Amino acid sequence: MSLARCLRRMVLAATILCPLAMPALAQEGEPEPEVLLTADRLDYQQRENLIIAEGDVELTREGRTLLAQKITWNRDTNIVIAEGNVVIVGEDGETLFGDKVELSDSLRAGFIEDVGVLLADDSRLAARRALRSSGNQTVLDRAVYSPCPLCEDPESSPLWQIKSRKVTHDQTAKEVVYEDATFDLFGIPVMYMPKFSHPDPSVKRKSGFLRPKFGSRTALGAFIQVPYYYVLSPNEDVTLAPLFTAEQGVALFGEYRRADRFGPTELQGSATYADRYAGSNGTKTEKDFRGHFKGTGRYVFDQGYGGGFDAFLSSDDTYLRRYDIDDENLLVNRPWVDRAWGTNYGVLDAFYFQGLRQSDDPGETPFVLPRGSVRWRTPTNSSFGGFYNVDASMLALTRSDGLDTRRLSSTVGWSRPMVGRYGDVLRFSLSMRADGYQTDGDPETFGPDGGSNATGRLYPLASAEWSLPLVKMTEGGWQHLIEPVLVGHLSPYGGNPDDIPNEDSQSLDFDDTNIFQANRFPGLDRVEGGPRGAYGVRFGSFSPDTFRISGMVGQSWRLKDDDTFQPGSGLDSNFSDYVGRIEMHPAQWLDLSYRFRIDDELEEITKNDLLASFGWQRFGFGLGYLSLADDPDLDDVQERKELTATVRAGVTDSLSITAGVRQDLVADEPVTYAFGMVYNHPCLVLVAGLERDYTEDRDAGPATTLLFRVTLKNLGEIGGRTSLSGSGSS
After folding, report:
1. How far is CA 339 from CA 304, 305, 348, 470, in A?
2. CA gap 13, 67 in Å, rounded
3. 388: which of 91, 283, 534, 644 lies 20 to 30 Å off by Cα?
4. Which fold has domain 3-199?
5. What pLDDT digit, counting tens, does each position of 470-493 carry?
6. Domain ranges in the chain?
C-alpha cells in the first residue's frame, strides 16, 4: 500500500470516528464502545445518518472485526449491510465468510447468505445461510462440517464430513448441535443421526459420553464399553464406564481425578459379579465379587514438605489379566510424607504388597510400617576440606506367618574430591555404618520359629577413586574421549552373620551401572567386605553431525573369595566377570545399544541385552534380544532367552502395516504376537489389529483379542485398547 493511500485511510478513519463518538458524548452514563472504520472511499450522508464505505473496508468494535468490499451503515436503525468477500472475525478467533451479510452495528447479530465458518482449530462449517444472534449463537441452514483439510480438487469430498439440515453453534454453552444429520465417509453416507452434538474447539472439558470401546477377547467374549464423563467442578471430574461382555456379564469401571494447588489425585477402580476360578487346574467356582482399586497422589506443600500415595489392590490373582487391566505380578501400596531443605532430605513411609503369582503366600508377604530415612549433607567444602554426610534409617517389617524384623541403621561419612595437576580427578571417602537388628523368627528360613534375637554390626569403609578424562578434537570437528577409571575399597570381612536376615538384598544384578560401587547389593541387609576394587575405561567418539558412539568396559577384583556371592552371580571369584555397554548412533535412522557380561576367562557370555531400532521413510523395525543365566539368589528365576521384534511397512504415505512378536527361545514358543494396520490422515486415524497372548495363569489363560480403533479429529475415538499405535503424518 502506498504512503498516500495509507494517509488517506487514516484521515477517513479519523473523520468517521468523530460523528460516531458525538452521540456518546451527548448521552449520560457509560459511553458507547469505540468503533474504528477504515476504507478507501467514504460517504457520510448526515441527513439520512447513513455511512457508505467502499474499498478494503474494515470495521472493528469490541474485539470483533468485519472485513468487506462495501458496507452501508444506517445509524438510525443500527444495521450494517456488508457485500463482497465478507469476513467476520469473532473475539474467540471464530471466522465467518459470506457474500452478503446483514448485521447489527455491534456485529453480534444478523443474517448471512452462502456462509462459511472457520473454527478456532481450523475445522470448517459451510451453509446456504446463517442467522447470528446475541453474538454468541449461530444457526446454519443445510450445513456441512468437516475438520479435514481442503482438497486440491474443489469437486472432491473431504475424507469425512457431517451433513445436517440444521446446525446450531452456541458459544455460551460451547456446543455444536446437529439435527437430521448424516455421517459421510469418502463421500458415501454411512450413518444417520437424528440429533448429534459435540463440544466446540474451545472446550477442554465437558460432560458427556466418550468414545465407545468394543472388540472381542477370549476370556470375555464380545464386549462393548461406553464411558460417561462428568465434570464435577473446575478442578475435578469423574468417568463411569460400564463394560458389557457376552461371557461374564457387566463390570463397572470408574475413575476420579482432582487437581489441587498442591498436586493431583487420581483414583480408579472396577467391580463385577462374575465367575471365579480356584486351584492350579482352574476349577470353576460359584460367581463371586471381583474388582480392583488403583490410586496415586503427588503433593508438594510449603517449606519443602510433600507427600503422596500409591495404591493398587485386586480382589484375586487373575482378575487384572483376565479383564486386560494390567499384567503386574506384584502390587505395591505406599503412603509417604517427606521434606527437602537445602541439601538434606527426609522421608517416612509404609508398604503393603499383594503378590499375584500362584506361588505367593500372603502369610509370608511382609508389611512395612514404618520405614523412615534422613539424609544430611554439608552444602559446601568444610574448613577441613571435603564434604560430610549423615544417613539414618529405620525399618519395621511384619509377617502374619513368618519372620518379623526391626532395623535401625546410621552412617557418618566424609568425602573429598580434587583435581590433579594433569587433569585427573580423585575422590577419597571414609564412612562408618552401624546397624542394629531385632528379629522374631528364623533369620535364615524366614519361618515363624526361632524365637527373638537382637544383633548388630559396625561397617567401616574407606574408598578411593581415580579417573583421567582425555579429550581430543580432530579434523572435521570430531570429539574423542577416553577415560581410564580405577577404584579401591577397604572394609572388614565377616559383615554378614547368619542372624542378620536378608530382606532387601536378595536380588543382585551385576552390570555396568554398579561395577565401581563399594557395595553392589541394592539394600542395607548385605554388605561387601575385604580389600577390593575395580578398573575400567569409558570411551566415546562424537561427530559434529549425527554419528556418535560411547560405552565402557570394566572388571572388579577382590583379595579373596567371598561366599556372600552365589555361583553364577559374576562376583563369586577373585576376579569378576567383565561387564560393559556400547551405544551407537551412526545415523538419524539407526540406533544400537548392547550391554553384556562375559566370564572372567573370556569363554562364555553370561548376559546379552541388545536393542536396535531402524527407521527409513516408510519402513522401520525394532529388535530386542535378552539372554540371562540362572539367578542364583532366586529359585523361581531360571535361564531366560527372549527375542522381541516389531516391524512397520508403509504401503502408502497414509497406510502402514505393523507386526510384532515376543518369542521365548528357551521354551521355543511365542509369548505374544500382534498384527495390524494403521491408516493416518490429518482428520482420521484407523487402527485395526489382532493380538495373541500365550501366557497361562489359571483362569487367565491364553487370550486372543480382536480390536480396532477409529480416531476422528474433534469427535474422539471409537474402539478398544491396542498395543498398535496410530501416529504419523498424512
Report:
1. 5, 4, 9, 40
2. 15
3. 534
4. lipopolysaccharide transport protein A fold (2.60.450)
5. 999 988 889 999 999 999 999 999
6. 3-199
